[in-house]
Design brief:
Elements (H helix, E strand, L loop, with lengths): L1 E6 L16 H11 L3 E3 L6 H10 E3 L6 E3 L7 E14 L2 E11 L2 H13 L11 E2 L3 H10 L5 E4 L19 H5 L8 E3 L6 H5 L8 E3 L15 E5 L7 H9 L4
Parallel strand pairs: 1-2, 2-5, 5-7, 9-10
Antiparallel strand pairs: 1-11, 3-4, 5-6, 6-8
Length: about 250
């Protein structure tokens, strides 16, 4: 078995209040300094950033993970991003941040297209604000197939989270209704820790992940996950998703 450290949620220079130094080569450099093996390619809904991804990254074999094209680096990238949903549901304004994982650039482009069909303005911010419900976003992810995944981000942040006291819900079921079984994990983020989450019975079968939500290079890896893989050949996008989905702690 080999261990890898994963930071599955960071941002790019196109996200509001984020450092202009957040570009893929620099992100890879800081991951090597911090000891992060796999990091989010971040903000794939933003058109200019997606071009930056295409210009700078290439897939490692058929693993679903990516590496820098023109620079030797041990850092591997996974295609994940965060979106912001602000909408009315059950007579209350909801503000939820959601993490989305995709197995390929083609899948990213299809997902982005589905958001745009629903009126999302993806060029407005690296973490786009849209009037689409969290349940509708999950429906898109489910319809795209089992290799896609959605995880509620920083689940307890008061204003922008599934359990946020100011704009969230009291349960996963209240938000996602019949689609709730497709939620296999939540991100604890900087707003909570595992012992806090373990006190909530409804999370007994939910995997907990935690990431940096980095808005600058220095913050990469301030929280992260350790995943165990059988060997180097098993270090793939599908295995990352499988570990989360099957609840393999």
């Amino acid at each position: 078995m080999i261990d890898k450290i994963l930071d599955l949620h960071i941002h790019s220079k196109y996200s509001r209040a984020c450092s202009p130094k957040l570009e893929l080569p620099s992100i890879a450099d800081f991951c090597e300094i911090k000891g992060v093996d796999i990091v989010s390619a971040s903000d794939f809904t933003h058109p200019a950033w997606l071009k930056h991804i295409k210009d700078n990254l290439e897939e490692v074999g058929s693993t679903g993970l990516y590496k820098l094209k023109n620079k030797e680096s041990k850092t591997r990238f996974i295609l994940s991003t965060e979106i912001s949903c602000i909408y009315r549901h059950k007579d209350k304004t909801r503000r939820l941040h959601l993490m989305i994982f995709a197995p390929s650039i083609a899948a990213v482009e299809k997902f982005n297209s589905e958001l745009e069909k629903r009126g999302a303005k993806l060029g407005s911010d690296g973490r786009p604000i849209m009037g689409i419900s969290a349940k509708e976003v999950l429906k898109i992810v489910v319809e795209m197939g089992p290799r896609m995944m959605m995880v509620p981000a920083h689940a307890w942040t008061p204003w922008f989270a599934i359990f946020g006291s100011k704009s969230g819900y009291n349960s996963l079921d209240e938000c996602f209704e019949e689609l709730t079984p497709h939620i296999k994990a939540i991100e604890t983020g900087l707003s909570s820790d595992p012992p806090m989450n373990h006190r909530l019975t409804q999370l007994d079968d939910i995997v907990l992940i935690s990431d940096s939500d980095a808005h600058s290079l220095d913050h990469i890896g301030r929280e992260a996950n350790v995943f165990a893989f059988e060997n180097e050949a098993a270090v793939t996008y599908d295995e990352v998703i499988n570990i989360i989905r099957t609840g393999d702690r």
